[in-house]
Each structure stands twice: as structure tokens, then as C-alpha cells.
Amino acid sequence: MKILDSQGRLFGKLSILDVGAALIVLLVAVGIFFFPGTSGGSVAQVGTSVKPVEIDAIAIGLKGTNVQELFKAGDKINVVIRNQPSGQITIKSAKTLTRTLAVPQPNGTLKALPDPRQEEAFSQNMMFTLEGKGQLTENGPVLGNTKVKIGTTLELEGNKYIFNASVIDVRVKE
């Protein structure tokens, strides 16, 4: 009996392509289970320490009536960073920023004065100071496996609101 017949079958029963596919599957399984690699979990969990983190964020053009009353110091809110839920953080403070206009003065200079337009009554600029626990890595603080840096967009969600705010400062408390 020949090892390989005229139709490419081993011992007249198994196709050589089937044997090749079975060997590839076997090698992949061996590679996964015996050589899993060096990815021992999330990067944020390797060589880190948990510290209190304060984040200043600004929301421009936040729409709603009585927006200031929605945010109270001590309230917990959910945070989503880059479409990844990052847990809850606490509102330390929230303040409304007055809108200003550059008004030319008779001497040729500009002066910033409050915006008198009434159509802007339902649009507020607000600054938030948020605090929570973050993992401190060599690249900075991490909330929920996502790095938080100046310019990061946070999606803040409470019982009555959901909006985006941009990080303008990050402080690690000792």
C-alpha cells in the first residue's frame, strides 16, 4: 500500500489538505495554552498605586434650565471616557462661568463685559472640579483603564443629565 495515492490521500483515506488543516489548528491551540504571551492583564494594573485624583473639566454651551441646581457638591456621577465606562466620581464643586464679549472702548482698547443677550439664557458655560480614586502610572493617572490627561473628553452622566466636558487640569493628591 502506498503512503500517498494518485488523488493526494494518505493511505487512501485522509486528504493531505485535511491533515495540514488539523496540524495548524493543533499548533494554534498549543501556542495559546502553553505560550500565552506577556499580556498579564491591563496595562493600568501593572506597577500602579491608587491615589486621590482631582480633575477640572469645563462644559461649554451646556443646555438646560436651572443647570446650576443639578450639580451639588458631594453628588456621585458616572463617567465614560473614550466610550469606556470608567466608574463613578464625586462632584467637588460646580460653578457657572459668565459669558463675556469683547467691547471696543472709545480709546481703542477692548474690554471684556458680560454678555447681555437673552437668547443665551438656556446655554451655560460651567467648570467642574471632580474627585475620585485613580491608578497612578508612569504616564499619569488612569480612571477605569483609561488615561486622563488635559484635553480628554469626559461624558458625565447623572440622574437628569448627560453631557460632555473637556479636562483642563489633572491633579494627583498625596
For the biggest β-sheet, the strand order reads: 3-8-5-4-11-12
Strand content is over 45%
Tell me about the biggest sheet? 6 strands, antiparallel, barrel
Number of strands: 12
The percent range for helix content is 10-25%
* Gyration radius over CA: 29 Å
Structural class: mainly beta
**Low-confidence parts:** 40-44
Assembly level: single chain
Summed over residues and divided by their number, the pLDDT gives a mean of 84
Shape: elongated
Question: How widely separated are the two ends?
Answer: 79 Å
Question: Helix and strand string, N-terminal first?
Answer: EEHEEEEEEEEEE
The number of distinct helices, counting runs of at least 4 residues, comes to 1
Structure explained in plain terms:
- This protein has one helix spanning 16-34, and strands at residues 9-10, 14-15, 49-63, 76-81, 84-97, 100-104, 110-114, 123-137, 140-143, 146-147, 153-157, 162-172.
- The strands form three sheets. A six-stranded antiparallel beta barrel has the order 3-8-5-4-11-12.
- By secondary structure, it is mainly beta.
List the SSEs and their pairings.
Elements: E1 9-10, E2 14-15, H1 16-34, E3 49-63, E4 76-81, E5 84-97, E6 100-104, E7 110-114, E8 123-137, E9 140-143, E10 146-147, E11 153-157, E12 162-172
Antiparallel strand pairs: 1-2, 3-8, 3-12, 4-5, 4-11, 5-8, 6-7, 8-9, 9-10, 11-12
